[in-house]
C-alpha cells in the first residue's frame, strides 16, 4: 500500500498520510529512547515486534468493545490506523509501584497498590512530559469533564483487559501508558485508544522471577531488549516458540 507524505516523526514511529481520507500509515522504527531521548540506540527487530504486539492488543481490545484507532496491519512494520485528534495527555495506569512513582513517593518498587491508580502527564517533550492533575487539564482546556470521565473509563477497561491477558501467560502488568484520540462523526465526538500498546509503553515482569520484559531492559542496561520483547510475543502466541533468531523476528500472518 503506497504511503502519502510524511506528517510526523516521533521517537519510535513515523506517520504518513494514508491511502484514503481519514487514514494514516503508522511505521514502527527500531529506534529506542529513554530518559526523554537522552539515551538512544537502534535495536534490530524492535519495530517489527512492537507492530505485531500492538496489533495483537488493539485487536483484542476491539473484540471486548474498547474502541481504538487500529484498522489493520499492512506489513512487518506498518499499520493502517484511523486519523484522530490526539488529546495532549499521556494516561498512565499503575498497578504496582515502579519507575517515577516509586521514586516520587518513596515506595519500594514492586509494591502492589491498593487499587489501580491513574495519572496524567502533559505531552510535551521539551518539558519532560510533566505530571498534571485534573485541575490543570480543566483549567487549560485540554479535555472537558466528560472527556475525563470517558478517558478514566477507557483506561481502566484497557487495564482489565491487559492485566488478564498478561496474567494468563505468567506476566505481571506493573503499569502502562496510553494515548487517547478524538474522532468525529458529524457533530458527535467520541474518544478512542490511539498510538500503540507494546512493551515500549508497558512495564511487564515475569510473575515467578521478576525478570523485566519491557523497555526498562534498555533503560537499565539489563540485557537484550529484543530478547525481552520476543519473550512477550512468544508467550502470547504472536511468534512461534522455535523462532531461531530473536533479533530477526518471524511474523505470523
UniProtKB/TrEMBL annotation:
<keyword id="KW-0436">Ligase</keyword>
<dbReference type="GO" id="GO:0005524">
    <property type="term" value="F:ATP binding"/>
</dbReference>
<dbReference type="GO" id="GO:0009236">
    <property type="term" value="P:cobalamin biosynthetic process"/>
</dbReference>
<comment type="similarity">
    <text>Belongs to the SAICAR synthetase family.</text>
</comment>
<comment type="pathway">
    <text>Purine metabolism; IMP biosynthesis via de novo pathway; 5-amino-1-(5-phospho-D-ribosyl)imidazole-4-carboxamide from 5-amino-1-(5-phospho-D-ribosyl)imidazole-4-carboxylate: step 1/2.</text>
</comment>
<keyword id="KW-0547">Nucleotide-binding</keyword>
<dbReference type="InterPro" id="IPR050089">
    <property type="entry name" value="SAICAR_synthetase"/>
</dbReference>
<dbReference type="GO" id="GO:0004639">
    <property type="term" value="F:phosphoribosylaminoimidazolesuccinocarboxamide synthase activity"/>
</dbReference>
<feature type="domain" description="SAICAR synthetase/ADE2 N-terminal">
    <location>
        <begin position="6"/>
        <end position="235"/>
    </location>
</feature>
<keyword id="KW-0067">ATP-binding</keyword>
<dbReference type="InterPro" id="IPR001636">
    <property type="entry name" value="SAICAR_synth"/>
</dbReference>
<dbReference type="GO" id="GO:0006189">
    <property type="term" value="P:'de novo' IMP biosynthetic process"/>
</dbReference>
<dbReference type="InterPro" id="IPR033934">
    <property type="entry name" value="SAICAR_synt_PurC"/>
</dbReference>
<dbReference type="Pfam" id="PF01259">
    <property type="entry name" value="SAICAR_synt"/>
</dbReference>
<keyword id="KW-0658">Purine biosynthesis</keyword>
<dbReference type="InterPro" id="IPR028923">
    <property type="entry name" value="SAICAR_synt/ADE2_N"/>
</dbReference>
<dbReference type="GO" id="GO:0005829">
    <property type="term" value="C:cytosol"/>
</dbReference>
<protein>
    <recommendedName>
        <fullName>Phosphoribosylaminoimidazole-succinocarboxamide synthase</fullName>
        <ecNumber>6.3.2.6</ecNumber>
    </recommendedName>
</protein>
<dbReference type="InterPro" id="IPR018236">
    <property type="entry name" value="SAICAR_synthetase_CS"/>
</dbReference>
